[in-house]
Design a protein that fits this description.
mainly alpha, Growth Hormone, Chain: A, 3 domains, cell membrane
């Protein structure tokens, strides 16, 4: 990693104070970058450790999806409130609290003795994690001048891009050399150092003119997100009856519709509906929501497939994810050239179908499949999936004006985390359904259930290409420079 730029400070919203020294600015950038790294790392590091966790907790490996869902759903729920808290209470206080809560949540996760305890503690961890990036980014914005903002954020974003890529491999390695508990315990010393560093080096800024928080709109969004997650996962995870699932789905729909009606009347809603008047933003946001369901399911499904059905160890399964990460990083620059040449519409339609077909191709996985072919399959998935993310994200953000950038970025971050949660929720529900439905599935042979799940996830993803077909065919201008941390 390169040394962060040493930049002069910009005025903040807080009371006048001495300008931070160049050393303080450098330390602050490293602090925010590390927080972003830990937040994104913990979204994937548990995936390869789920079977080991299941054995330790006396659970079935195919019923551990709530450990992943709890973290990503909590972050989605907390994103809308984090910026307001930083404005109201100050960036240093909120960032310090976020690191402290994240570290405490990690320590509690490592000491969980039941699945329910682990899920509850992952929620605590998610509350802290959700505030690390938005509040850290806000601190950078208020400390560095506008002309240096992109350079500073680019440095902060790099660890956030790396975290999800190395998470599965690091998780498998920690399970091999120690135990699954260490995927959480490694956060504790980092959290202690982070708290001390935040207290000493992070400038404290707040917005004295912050408006009233839209609590009614926020609660409607929370009810909608939580209800749909329980509806999709409750049947398999908690044994909820079909009638209750239907009620939860209706409640979720009603909450989202009620938020729309509320946002029209509310002078300052959390997310203004005017954002959806921007064609590229609305198509990109909806495309992200549905296409990312499959992409959120795959990091959960692939390590489980390798360990539960093919007999890989946690470390071996983590190593098998390296081609996905390497191909993903290598393909990012290619997609920009394709967009300029063929347009967003053409690239996203074709690539979305390609991603879906690649996901469905895992339905052909067998124990006799040559290793080289499996590696090629994983690398190809990593490449097209990374191109999908880059194209969808730049499309979503490219036409946001200065006035809508903050709200649009926050809504986009919420959708990203919600779709990750829904991806794991749907994958877990499909696995459980096919495990009980297909006659060939036994405790020793779960491969047919995985095959059917991969096929369904691929169909869902390929079907979302219809959303991108609504784009005008001549949209091919490269995206303007936006917050790099939103391009993961």
């Amino acid at each position: 990693m390169t040394t962060p730029p040493t930049l002069p400070a910009a005025p903040s919203d807080a009371a006048p104070s001495p300008s931070p020294s160049p050393r303080s600015l450098t330390v602050m950038l490293w602090l925010v970058a590390t927080g972003f790294f830990m937040q994104t790392l913990d979204s994937t590091i548990v995936n390869t450790a789920l079977p080991a966790m299941a054995t330790s907790l006396g659970e079935l490996p195919l019923r551990m999806q709530s450990v992943v869902i709890a973290y990503s759903l909590t972050m989605a729920v907390m994103i809308p409130v984090s910026g307001w808290l930083a404005d109201k209470l100050g960036t240093r206080r909120v960032f310090f609290s976020a690191i402290l809560v994240f570290a405490i949540g990690s320590l509690l996760c490592a000491n969980a003795h039941t699945l329910n305890q682990l899920v509850a503690f992952r929620i605590v961890q998610g509350v802290g994690g959700a505030m690390l990036l938005p509040v850290g980014r806000l601190a950078v914005l208020r400390t560095f001048p506008a002309e240096r903002y992109l350079a500073a954020l680019s440095f902060v974003a790099i660890p956030g891009l790396i975290g999800p890529l190395i998470g599965p491999t690091l998780g498998g390695w920690l399970v091999k050399i120690a135990s699954w508990h260490w995927i959480f315990l490694i956060n504790v010393p980092v959290g202690i150092v982070g708290c001390i560093t935040t207290f000493i080096f992070m400038p404290d800024s707040r917005n004295e003119h912050v408006g009233k928080f839209d609590m009614k709109g926020y609660l409607l969004l929370v009810v909608g997100m939580v209800a749909i997650s329980f509806a999709l996962d409750g049947r398999t995870e908690f044994g909820i009856q079909h009638a209750t699932v239907l009620v939860l789905l209706i409640l979720s729909l009603a909450a989202f519709v009620a938020y729309g009606l509320h946002a029209v009347r509310e002078p300052a809603p959390i997310f203004s509906l005017d954002l959806f008047k921007i064609h590229t933003f609305s198509v990109g946001l909806l495309g992200n929501l549905f296409a990312r369901i499959g992409s959120g399911a795959m990091p959960y499904l692939i390590p489980l497939l390798l360990q539960v059905s093919l007999g890989y160890s946690a470390f071996e399964a983590g190593m098998m994810m390296l081609p996905v990460a390497a191909a993903g990083m290598a393909s990012k620059r290619l997609v920009t050239k394709l967009i300029v040449k063929y347009s967003y519409r053409s690239v996203l339609i074709v690539n979305t179908v390609l991603v879906g077909l690649t996901m469905a191709s895992f339905a052909l996985t067998s124990a006799d499949q040559p290793l080289w072919l499996r590696l090629v399959q994983l690398a190809f998935f990593g490449g097209v999936n990374s191109m999908q993310f880059t194209a969808m994200n730049t499309l979503t953000l490219k036409d946001l004006g200065t006035g809508g950038a903050s709200s649009g970025n926050s809504l986009f971050s919420l959708v990203q985390m919600l779709s990750m949660s829904l991806g794991v929720t749907i994958a877990g529900a499909l696995l459980a359904t096919f495990t009980g439905l297909l006659p060939r599935v036994t405790a020793a042979n779960s491969l047919p259930a995985f095959h059917a799940t991969f096929l369904c996830v691929g169909i869902i993803t390929a079907g979302s290409s219809w959303i991108f077909a609504q784009l005008a065919p001549d949209i091919r201008t490269p995206a303007r420079k936006t917050d790099p941390s939103e391009r993961t």
